[in-house]
Amino acid sequence: DDELQTDGNRSGHFQNGLAQTNEEVIRIIAAQLAEIGDQFDREIQEGVVNSLARHFLNENLSNEEITQHMSRAVRELTRAIPSDMEQEKAMLVLTMVLTKKIVNTVPALLRRVFNTTLNYMNQQFHNYIAEMVSAVTQ
């Protein structure tokens, strides 16, 4: 039952190559991402969030189709970020901020949005996250 608690504490260890990672490393990375997320949070327009929420509400769309909509929104939002920021980091943070905003807009979507986001992040950012952890621990 390895999971990340909503209060930021871990109840277990990460799987898939990140096992036994130092909790302090996780906290450092989370603080950096949260700071960037706060900046992005103010810049994401309500229309983008509402559009994605409508896709999540559409039960006729498969998870793959919704993931494609999320990916497209993240790519479009990435174009507006400062060019000095790592593309993958920006996309990762934008994904998390969009997820938060969608769930805050339509709380009933929590399970579907969370599962879709988790799968999307595993597909798109698994190696990047592993590299971030590795860079901080060296």
TrEMBL record:
Top-rank taxon: Eukaryota
SUPFAM superfamilies: Bcl-2 inhibitors of programmed cell death
GO cellular component: cytosol; mitochondrial outer membrane
Coiled-coil boundaries: none
Subcellular location per the Swiss-Prot or TrEMBL entry: Cytoplasm; Mitochondrion outer membrane
Family annotation (InterPro entries): Bcl-2-like_sf, BID
GO biological process: apoptotic mitochondrial changes; positive regulation of extrinsic apoptotic signaling pathway; positive regulation of intrinsic apoptotic signaling pathway; positive regulation of release of cytochrome c from mitochondria
Keywords tagged on the record: Apoptosis, Cytoplasm, Membrane, Mitochondrion, Mitochondrion outer membrane
Keyword flag Mitochondrion: yes
Pfam families per the UniProt record, alphabetical: BID
UniProt protein name: BH3-interacting domain death agonist
